[in-house]
Specification:
This protein has 2 helices and 4 strands, in the order ββαββα. By secondary structure, the protein is α+β, with helices and mostly antiparallel strands.
Length: 119
């Protein structure tokens, strides 16, 4: 059995919000015999994690699985092993750096809570 990291993408739609488009890119750890099995397991996770629920405002929120967009075999699990890497180009690097610093600060202040996603 081998370990893989899979990036799974979901679309998030909120009933009352007609303009905004939100997507969630989730990196999942998959344990499988081979890459084909890992891909199928990642797709299964995507479909199983689709959901529909009401938010605190009473609006329906739908998370729809779109696709598995990357799959990498992990040679061995150890401290510091790279699970995923992506190079980002941004027209406004100062804004990007500020967003990253804000996310890091929130994680540092609340390490046990899930970080809030914002742009």
């Amino acid at each position: 059995m081998n370990w893989y990291s899979a990036k799974i993408v979901f679309q998030i739609q909120i009933e009352s919000v007609k303009i905004a488009h939100q997507f969630d890119e989730s990196i999942r750890l998959i344990h499988a015999n081979n890459k084909e099995e890992a891909f199928q397991l990642a797709r299964k996770i995507g479909f199983e994690n689709q959901s529909r629920f009401k938010n605190i405002n009473g609006d329906w929120v739908m998370w729809s699985f779109i696709a598995v967009v990357s799959l990498y075999e992990i040679d061995k699990l150890q401290n510091g092993v790279e699970m995923y890497s992506m190079i980002i180009e941004d027209q406004n690097p100062d804004h990007y750096i500020q967003v990253i610093k804000n996310k890091a600060k929130m994680l540092e202040e609340n390490p046990l809570e899930n970080p809030v996603k914002f742009e």
